[in-house]
Design a protein that fits this description.
mainly alpha
């Protein structure tokens, strides 16, 4: 388990708990906190890709979405 849970988001904590409660970490022998972090990073990557797609097609993004890499 990570040493500093204060750095984890509520969503990450919820995902970690869900993964643990469903024993989903057992199949891959990967701790639940690593799987939860992976899922959060996948969501972040998808959000970046979605925003870049919108920019490509010329859609106007809200101010909260303009910071894309």
């Amino acid at each position: 388990m990570p040493t500093n849970t204060n750095l984890m988001t509520r969503l990450q904590q919820d995902l970690q708990s869900l993964i643990n409660s469903e024993n989903r970490e057992e199949d891959s022998n990967t701790p639940d906190f690593i799987l939860a972090e992976y899922m959060i990073r996948c969501l972040e990557a998808f959000e970046i890709a979605s925003n870049r797609r919108e920019v490509w097609y010329g859609a106007e993004l809200g101010s909260e979405k303009k910071n894309i890499s």
